[in-house]
Amino acid sequence: MSNTYSAFSLFKQAFRGHQGWQPVWRNPEPKPEYDIIIIGGGGHGLATAYYLAKNHGIKNIAVLEKGWLGGGNTGRNTTVIRSNYFYPESCALYDLSVRLYENLSRELNYNVMFSQRGMMVLIHSEAEMEMAVRGINAMKLGGTDAQLLDADGVKKRAPILNFRQDARFPIHGALIQERGGTGRHDAVAWGYARAADRLGVDIIQNCEVTGVIVEGGRVTGVETSLGKIRASRFGAAIAGHSSVLAEMAGYDLPIQSYALQAFVSEPLKPVIDVVAFTAAYGAYFSQSDKGGLVMGGGLDRVPSYGQRGNMPMQEAVLSGLIEFAPALAKVKILRQWAGIVDVTPDSSPVIGPSGIDGLYLNCGWGTGGFKAIPAGGYLFAHLLATGDHHEISRPFDPDRFKTARLIDEGAASGIAH
Amino acid sequence: MRDDSTRWAAASGYDRPDININGLQISVIRPWRQTLISGPISKSLELGYQKRAVGWPEIAKGKNYAIRMRRDRIMLINGPAIEDGWHKDKGLAVSDMSDACAVIQLEGVLADSVLKRGTELDIGIPSGSVVRVFHGFETFIYRWQSKDIFRLHIQFGYLESIWLLLQNFSNQASAQPCTNWR
Amino acid sequence: MQQFPCPFCGLRDEREFHFAGEAGKMRPDTSGEVTQTDWSRYLNSYKNREGKASEVWVHLPCQEYFIMHRDTLSMKVLGTEQLRRQEEI
Amino acid sequence: MSSSRLPGYGLIDHSKTLAFQFDGKQFQGHPGDTLASALLANGVRIIARSFKYHRPRGVWGAWFDDPNAIFDVSLNGIKIPNCAGATTCLRDGMRVQSVNTFPTAQFDVKAILDWFSPFLPAGFYYKTFMWPNWHLFEPTIRKMAGLGKLSEEITENYQSDQIHQNCDLLVVGGGAAGLVAASAAAQSGQSVLLVEDHNIAGGGLYRRGREIENQPPGHWVEQQIDAIKSAGGQLLLATTAFGVYDHNLVALAEDRGFGRAPRLWKIRAKRIVMTTGAIDRPLTFVNNDRPGVMSVEGALEFLGRYGVLAGRQIALLSNNNRAEPSANLLREAGANVRVLDATQGSPAAIGGKILRGIEFAAQTIACDTILASGGLTPVVHLWRQAGGKLDWDEKISAFIPGKPPNNMVAAGSVNGTFDLEEAMAEARAAALDLPVPRTDSSFQVKTLSPDRHSTGRQWIDFQHDVTLKDIELAARENYASVEHLKRYTTLGMASDQGKTSNMAGLDALASIQNRSIPEVGTTTFRPPFIPVPLELYRGAHRQQLLHPLKRLILEPEHRAAGAALGEYGGWLRPAWYGTGSSHEAIKQEVLAARNNAAIIDASPLGKIEILGPDAEKFVNFVFYNTISTLKPGHIRYGFMLSERGIIFDDGVVTRIDENRFIISCSSSHVDSVNRALEGWRQDGNDPDSVFVHDTTQNWSTITISGPQARKILTVLDLGVDLSPEAFPHMSFRQGNFASDPARISRVSFTGDLSYEISVPLSNTSLLWSAVISSGKPLGAALVGVEALAILRAEKGYIFVGKDTDGETMPHDLGLSIPRMRKKTPFVGDRALHTLTANSENRRQLVGLLIGKDDEILTTGAHLIENSGTRPRSIGYVTSSYHSPTLGHPIALALLEKGTTLTGKTVPVWNQGETRQAKVVSPCLFDAEGGRLNA
């Protein structure tokens, strides 16, 4: 029913005043029952539905979204895609994601604008250099790409950065993952939604889950703002609001919610052609195709569900960013926003059973959910379809908190003495 | 290996000229003793021969006085010599901290405006204690002798940095009011 | 920039405070046997309430640990409680 | 030339001229002009090009609602990109350049893109550029996109100022309502701050041109200001409230002039009165983007404030009853104005770069200017940011403030109250916290939806080239939510942040979907209300004040001794001494330390005192090691763990007496250890029986280590018996130095006989010179942190965080006795017995040896196992040096099952290169401890 996208179809439609474009997705009424219901119409939920239909042949699926699809963290991040992780488990997970992203536009027939411009992690001291070498080796052994740049190499890639000797943190070099970069966040949600819809998935917007129906220790349905809907399996992919569902259904989660802020500047002619991240200054930025600088940093200090963000972190991130790239001082901010991210004790995601039969979880992505959308969907679909982990998602099962086999990417980087 | 000695201006320690700008005077002062006492406040005050430990915006008076640090802690400024350690009879813990903090005095009508650049300080918001984060530094800030003399204590290690900050703030404060201000 | 009320110092800039965990969580008594589940729950489980929440905070400059009730969505502070008994001021 | 200056009009100073350049041409303006008003006064109509199609653009609005006039401006060598022309004040000598044009806005070669616009509808890029991949097309597209050019030069002294202020009442907006509110509040005794974004208060008064309370606006405004000030109120001009944050914090940006960074005011107000006014809403009609089409209110503002008449032959197209009074004002100024009721026909602008007329109700009307108004849109941005609700006012067809957020009230035009008397009555009530009277407005609007059957293009977002057809396309493709619409078409994401386009866009979507505007809803209003430079947020958080370092009291002495300084754990410390090669200097320091003695400034070491009757129990609980058996005068090395059992800090505990301990934690962990200790003290202990005093900065510590250490100390005459029997390793004595107390700990981080002498800061300099004069004859050397790192590595001593990671537990370092035997609870105890803690595959600390003359191993190289299809990491090198003492390379590593591999060879892998190393004990120096205990 839907058009195939190409330069040719765009050309053809131009002569028809673009009257012939079909809806990218339907607005179906919810059926009383599905095989699988995905709660959450963000990137992870939509990707899960897509892979369930495509890889596992399950078509009787609904995605329930309380607002507009892609309106949560999928549409509120800084669009960075990378797999520069330390632990082999993480490398495997995020590299699967990068590989899926590499072919995603063609697979979905929707341009998600994955731009592999490189992801650069700056090194500002000898101590950081040692940790970077540890990281590069871990990445290479873990099967992903990484290279070390010296200060001159960094200067070639990003002359806008602060190479002055009086910089608070001088630049020694960088770790760069060339396959990393950015994507168009909304397009990822829309592309998956369109592709899933074409495979028969019901995407139901403005449908808020208000209750979980548990019968005989098993989740059999959900109460929603559009009525009761049943299914034999449920997958929850609701990021920062995971704990709200957990309270409804009655299971524990190792999650705390925080606002993560981002900023975009007025559009500028090209300034930087790589994603530049610096831990010392606590900030990173890249430039969007429209020309705006997309900037971010750490979590707000106060746990919250307020999708606003607050000044202390703005001051911390932006003052670090200017010291990192002083020419940016005069650049103006156009918008600032925040997403609510779900942070686990080890900063690694949770994929696995909820503890209540029939309900599975995909959450805990913290600050890094966008880059993991294809892998998160792919692996979660596997779990929902088969009831078993894909080998890549096994280490991310919530049972790791009991066995204490954490995948602590935050602590892996250690602390300088 | 990187040598940062030229990237950081040589430290001046206590030996530095005052900041004097538009009637604002900022100087380092050297009380001869600062004593930290933890435990029941009435006992602590008794030990230091003080009636009260000031909070915000109270005004500390005289050469020797006490400032309130927290629910169960005061600091005596120029108090009597008291033996370090646990005072069993009174249930008090005592540590001499005479050298731990540098003390900076800010005087003049602009002093309030300098302080407001580093913290949300207002006489309308009283506080039981004088401890306060000032532009990221943990400090004690209180009024002394009059309503526009302020004292600020800071860990000695941060004296260089906070001085740089106060210079910066003094320049900003004395540049005000600008034409937009009516 | 929020303002939180330290039970001793009064209203202060949020940057003077540090979130120290959810209220009501007890450390299991490790002088006896503690199951893996109980220990894991102690370390890892959060209510993470959207809306009214009770949390332990510390006012960094005065190091007072206290319980703060607040709304995690509206950011309204609903009240504080001292962790320790009332005492002469 | 259609727009022109009118002598005698406006608030500008006609007597002085200012010269400026636009796109290479010279022009003149007057003080009080903005770039937009000056260009209009010079009859310049085309001042920009649109983002996508490079259509010519003229000035649309006179203030922050203008989406078109965006310039790169330079003055006196300072270049600022993307300055909003309607809000940037003109200065003499400014060079103004249109953005994203080549060569000029007037003649832009990329205008040819407009011919391809049929192929470039909203979101066209989602449908193409997929093969072979996006990154191939991206560079071309990125060069085409973007507006201003950022100069890479760093502007020195471009520094924002930041200040806090508290007040009872903040009034946002200095129009008539704001002035009245501020003066009423000030007179009632409230502390008041009124903030106004123009540099002259009065708001919309100047554009209505009439008297207020029988006075000219300027007089009346001055009177109000006097009243406010004499009642103790304050007024901030040229300052915009751009953000409302939690707990009534309002952020203001004070414009301090071109080239100077603004000042950030963080205002904490008990109450806030919003008198933010209203802006004109554009009309959607064919070719409404043509230069010469302006907002009615904009034209009146240019007239009243800047003395610029927008045109001579004006068609005023409007759907409301303000049209005639507005037209009269323009007529008085000499324009020929024809008022057209926009609801009575489908208008279309005629002309290209030059506007020639308007087609309306089947007739063609010649004009050089079209002024358009689709009603007034209250400026509710800050209200929404604060969490206030909006109500739809059908009568004026606009959103007005509804249920208020905490402590906020709206008055005047922002409420839809456009009549002056009523607005001022509202303001007075709002100021005094009385119920705000609401009256029926005389303002009348006829509802008007875009004509979807017209054939020409109708612009919704002027800067981003979003047309009605684009919105129709988005709706057709089911990007039906208002957020999808915004993101798909980029509507409202231009640099005016949708101030102009938002309502027109909602209106268009509503009419396409056959819904009402309130049903469609609004997008979120976010800070900043106007674009503000990043610098605004920075203030003094710059250079050395960004993560400032702590400085040693001995720094002058270290510098005098030729120290190289480095950043270690938040302190600036001597890295090594001497000016030659660092490598050689460090080697000599190590050798001197081993052969004679090292003198080290170890002042940053933590000194946290635990006092009280429960101190013993407390320290025993927070330490992994058993401390309860420690006798006064003795010292024990130990770990503090996290509750996950991970090593958080290592250090020594000294028991001074029954009720007093000193924890000497790592220098970088003092604050975190102190906080953790306070946490445990207040949670689960009697807080009256144990106290934590961080005395770190009261004391300096000088370490004297090496075979000659005792002799050096003897000379210092500290009043302590130094004989090994009287003062053995791991013991503590209190002595005297310069008649003040001195604390002497016999502990070692080098593996040699060592003493740490701590004295109050004020005695440090004296002690330092005494130690040097007694040490120098004995061959002692000043030793920096780098040599110390080697000394401790030779001995196999760790740095927490370098030689341990986020998984390391004490038993991984071979210290497993408390884990097995300690009976009383301690922090992290249970975590040492999980499946993972009990695993046989844990990474353990080992030493590594390679050939005597080999290059040292790279720190960060991994140890690997070549069993599977590809090498697997089984650990990594954490420290690696050439040992001057041993004359060969040494390394420490964390290695899976490391202790079972002692004597074996493991491959060491670094970025593709493999070497071999032998696993040995981490301790390679004086394993028996003879030197330590000497």
Basic shape of chain D: elongated
Uncertain regions of chain D: pLDDT < 50 for 5+ in a row? none
Q: Which CATH class of the domain at 161-279 and 377-431 in chain D applies here? A: Alpha Beta
- Helical run tally of chain D: 21
Q: CATH homologous superfamily of chain C, by name?
A: Folate-binding superfamily
Topology as H/E string of chain C?
A: EEEHEEE
Written description of the protein model:
The complex is a heterotetramer of chains A (417), B (182), C (89) and D (934). Chain A has 417 residues and is α/β, with parallel strands linked by helices. Chain A is built from twelve helices and 18 strands. Chain A has helices at residues 7-14, 43-56, 88-102, 104-108, 126-141, 151-157, 185-198, 242-249, 311-324, 373-386, 400-403, 409-412; strands spanning 33-39, 61-64, 80-81, 119-123, 147-150, 173-177, 181-182, 202-204, 209-215, 218-224, 227-236, 256-267, 275-278, 283-287, 292-303, 332-343, 350-353, 359-363. In chain A, strands 1, 2, 8, 9, 10, 11, 17 and 18 form an eight-stranded mixed beta sheet that branches. Chain A has an eight-stranded mixed beta sheet with strand order 5-6-4-13-14-15-12-16. In chain A, strands 3-7 form a two-stranded antiparallel ribbon. Chain A is globular. In chain A, 67% of the residues are buried. Chain B has a single domain (18-175), classed as Probable tRNA modification gtpase trme, domain 1 (Gyrase A, domain 2, 2-Layer Sandwich), CATH 3.30.1360. Chain B is built from three helices and 13 strands. The model of chain B has no long low-confidence stretch (mean pLDDT 95). Chain C is mainly β. The radius of gyration of chain C is 15 Å and the shape is globular. In chain D, helix 3 (176-187) runs parallel beside helix 5 (217-230) and helix 15 (582-595) crosses helix 20. The longest helix of chain D has 14 residues, at 217-230. At the A-D interface, helix 1, helix 5, helix 7, strand 12 and helix 9 of A face strand 7, helix 2, helix 10, helix 11 and strand 30 of D.
State the gist of this model.
The complex is a heterotetramer of chains A (417), B (182), C (89) and D (934). Chain B is of the alpha+beta class and 182 residues long. Chain B contains three helices and 13 strands.
List keywords for this structure.
heterotetramer, A: alpha/beta, eight-stranded mixed beta sheet, globular, D: 934 residues, FAD/NAD(P)-binding domain, Arc Repressor Mutant, subunit A, Alpha-Beta Plaits, seven-stranded mixed beta sheet, six-stranded mixed beta sheet, 21 helices, 21% helix
SSE layout:
The complex is a heterotetramer of chains A (417), B (182), C (89) and D (934).
Chain B: E1 19-21, E2 24-29, E3 34-38, H1 41-47, E4 53-54, E5 59-60, E6 65-70, E7 73-77, E8 85-87, E9 92-96, E10 101-107, H2 111-116, E11 131-134, E12 137-144, E13 149-155, H3 159-175
Parallel strand pairs in B: 4-6, 5-12
Antiparallel strand pairs in B: 1-2, 2-10, 3-7, 3-9, 6-7, 8-9, 10-13, 11-12, 12-13
Chain C: E1 3-6, E2 10-13, E3 17-22, H1 36-44, E4 52-59, E5 64-71, E6 77-82
Antiparallel strand pairs in C: 1-2, 3-4, 4-5, 5-6
Chain D: E1 4-5, E2 18-22, E3 25-29, H1 35-41, E4 48-49, E5 56-57, E6 70-75, E7 78-84, E8 94-98, H2 134-144, E9 161-172, H3 176-187, E10 192-195, H4 205-208, H5 217-230, E11 234-236, E12 239-245, E13 249-254, E14 263-274, E15 278-280, E16 293-295, H6 296-306, E17 308-309, E18 313-318, H7 323-332, E19 336-341, E20 348-351, E21 355-360, E22 363-366, E23 369-373, E24 376-378, H8 381-385, E25 390-393, E26 398-401, E27 408-410, H9 420-431, E28 459-461, E29 466-467, H10 468-476, H11 482-489, H12 501-513, H13 517-520, E30 532-533, E31 550-551, H14 555-560, E32 563-568, E33 571-577, H15 582-595, E34 597-601, E35 608-611, H16 615-622, E36 635-641, E37 647-657, E38 660-664, H17 670-682, E39 691-694, E40 699-705, H18 709-716, E41 731-737, E42 740-746, E43 754-760, H19 764-775, E44 780-782, H20 785-795, H21 817-821, E45 843-849, E46 862-865, E47 872-883, E48 888-896, E49 905-910, E50 913-920
Parallel strand pairs in D: 2-8, 9-10, 9-14, 10-11, 14-27, 16-23, 18-19, 18-23, 31-33, 34-44
Antiparallel strand pairs in D: 1-17, 2-3, 4-5, 6-7, 6-8, 12-13, 13-14, 15-24, 20-21, 21-22, 25-26, 28-29, 32-33, 34-40, 35-38, 35-39, 36-37, 37-38, 40-43, 41-42, 42-43, 45-48, 45-50, 46-47, 46-49, 47-48, 49-50
